[in-house]
Specification:
Blueprint lengths: L1 E6 L10 E7 L6 H9 L3 H7 L10 E5 L8 E9 L5 H18 L3 E5 L10 H16 L19 E6 L5 H26 L7 H15 L2 E5 L1 H7 L2 H7 L7 E7 L11 E12 L19 H15 L5 E11 L11 E3 L5 E3 L7 H12 L6 E6 L4 H6 L4 E5 L2 H14 L3 E4 L16 E2 L7 H10 L7 E5 L5 E2 L9 E2 L4 H11 L5
Helix pairs in contact: 3-4, 4-5, 5-9, 6-9, 8-10, 9-14, 10-13, 12-14
Bound molecules: ligand BES, manganese (II) ion (MN) and zinc ion.
The site of ligand BES has 14 residues, from loops.
């Protein structure tokens, strides 16, 4: 999608569709909406009076202009209540508009910047949200189907963001540029998540990440099982044993141009990338197992955030560690009761081979220490129980480091990818005591997400650390205004915002 920014007035645009907005409860249009309403002889005022346009968030109302404006169609996108308004609502409103445009088969449209006027957002932030929302809302997974379906409308090709005030044009341009990167990288991660696991093997994931890295100027090193053995990654390799596909440890590094690395904070992002999780010998039930192609969502989010950092040339030293393997049963597979040794020398008793994510992350977290990082954040579809605790919209945040936690909460608020703090409750650590090894990796059903986090903490030594459990948010069974059914890429934009927060200057 091409995104343009230009100075101008929406009512003068000769696009296939123009997008304006409406706050809930507003009876008399103001600003851009008023200009359009005037040209249409008060048609919008009438729609509002009749209750046909309420301005609710996610609501879109389509009007035809019958020659009274250069554009044949007007779309009003709802912003919700002015008193509740946040930057994420501008993103959702833009997404709803883009989604409606795509359903209509409109491939070119123009929009105003939602939320910069009455919404009170900084123009750059509002413009970023509009660009991001537009890309996220227009997204569809390119299906593997022989014949096109009726609902397969063409992609939105070009969107023009209009700003009337010349003094704000530069800020809008900057915001759109950032939003374009964050939207595109998140959609790229969605494609990886939606891709079937027979296509997206660990090697294929590594190939695609390496190709993307080359394109944007990220350093990328891919290690196979031989290198992992040399590193002593016994925990990661134990999970890979059951699969015919070779495990891949993908290391991405963003070194910004024109700055001395030593002056910059180093942030390491660690992603779980199980390209398919059968559970291994502790086999999962058949029902819904197909969804386990999304078990690489953490790794996809990390790759997307690193790509964004490179494209924006953020002044931060960012490293991405992606632990990719399948989790399969076989005659060679890891068994319950086995003991494995992680990179830091700790031995782990395996209770369920379905608790594989923490095993691959354990080694990746040990590896992270070599960068002497300012902060390390891991992101993983780790436990089904996080969904029982927090539902389908909130991801769990486990972090005892105040500065890192507050940065993550701020990034979460800004990106609209909600996190909820969860406890690293020390007394539960004894549930991980083992009779045969330094520790076991599970400790019963109760508090499963907390136990998984406490297990990871044993390997996140010597640096500030946070763990994000995205098992219940990486996939949605129903579409929302800015997602389709399927992979959401939850965390991709959040982590990019975290990297932006560490960047000494805003780009
Ligand atoms: N990938 C799963 C977690 C998951 C479950 C994600 C459902 C999305 C939906 C993870 O590897 C797993 O299997 N976790 C187990 C842990 C248990 C064996 C301690 C779980 O949640 O049941
Ligand atoms: Mn599992
Ligand atoms: Zn898993």
């Amino acid at each position: 999608m091409q995104l343009n920014v230009k100075q101008g007035y929406i009512q003068e645009e000769a696009a296939d569709l123009i997008v304006v907005n409406l706050f809930e409860g507003v009876k008399t249009p103001g600003g851009a909406l008023k200009a359009v309403d005037d040209a249409l002889g008060g048609a919008i005022t009438q729609l509002i009076a009749d209750g046909d346009a309420k301005g609710k968030l996610g609501e879109t109302t389509l009007l035809y202009t019958y020659g009274r404006l250069p554009a044949p169609r007007v779309l009003i996108t709802g912003l919700g209540k002015a008193e509740d308004f946040k930057v994420h609502h501008a993103r959702q409103a833009a997404a709803a508009a883009a989604k409606r445009a795509r359903q209509l088969g409109v491939t070119r449209f123009s929009t105003i910047v939602h939320g910069a006027g009455r919404g009170g957002l900084a123009p750059q932030d509002a413009a970023q949200a509009v660009a991001e929302g537009t890309l996220l809302g227009a997204y569809r997974y390119a299906r593997r189907q022989r014949e096109a379906k009726e609902q397969d409308t063409p992609p939105v090709a070009e969107v023009t963001v209009l700003e009337a005030n010349p003094a704000q044009l530069e800020a809008v341009r900057r915001g759109v540029a950032v939003g374009q990167v964050l939207g595109e990288t998140a959609n790229w991660a969605r494609d990886l998540i939606n891709e079937p696991a027979n296509y997206l093997t660990p090697r294929e994931l590594a190939r695609r990440i390496a190709a993307q890295a080359a394109e944007v100027g990220l350093e990328c090193q891919v290690m196979g099982e031989e290198e992992l053995a040399a590193l002593g990654a016994g925990s990661f390799l134990a999970i890979a044993r059951g699969s015919e596909e070779e495990a891949q440890f993908i290391v991405l590094e963003h070194k910004p141009q024109g700055v001395d690395l030593a002056d910059l904070p180093t942030v390491v992002l660690v992603g779980k990338a199980i390209t398919f999780d059968t559970g291994g010998i502790s086999l999962k039930p058949a029902e819904d197992m197909w969804k386990m192609k999304d078990d690489m969502g953490g790794g996809a989010a990390v790759a997307a955030a690193l790509t964004a950092a490179a494209r924006l040339n953020l002044p931060v030293h960012a490293v991405g560690l992606i632990a990719a393997t399948e989790n399969m049963p076989s005659g060679r597979a890891l068994k319950p009761g086995d003991v494995v040794t992680a990179m830091n020398g700790k031995t782990v008793e395996i209770i369920s081979t379905d608790a594989e994510g923490r095993q691959v992350l354990a080694d990746a977290l040990c590896y992270a220490a070599r960068y002497k990082p300012t902060a390390v954040v891991d992101i993983a579809t780790l436990t089904g129980t996080i969904g029982l605790a927090l539902g389908r919209q909130l991801a769990g945040l486990f972090c005892d480091h105040e500065d890192l936690r507050s940065r993550l909460m701020q990034a979460s608020e800004f990106s609209g990818e909600p996190l909820w703090p969860m406890p690293l409750y020390k007394p539960y650590r004894k549930l991980l005591e083992s009779d045969v090894a330094d520790l076991k990796h599970t400790g019963g059903r109760y508090g499963g997400s907390i136990l998984a986090a406490l297990f990871l903490q044993e390997f996140a030594e010597g640096y500030p650390w946070a763990h994000l459990d995205i098992a219940s948010t990486i996939w949605q069974d129903e579409a929302t205004s800015f997602t389709v059914r399927g992979g959401t890429a939850f965390g991709a934009r959040l982590l990019a915002e975290l990297l932006r927060s560490y960047a000494a200057r805003k780009e």
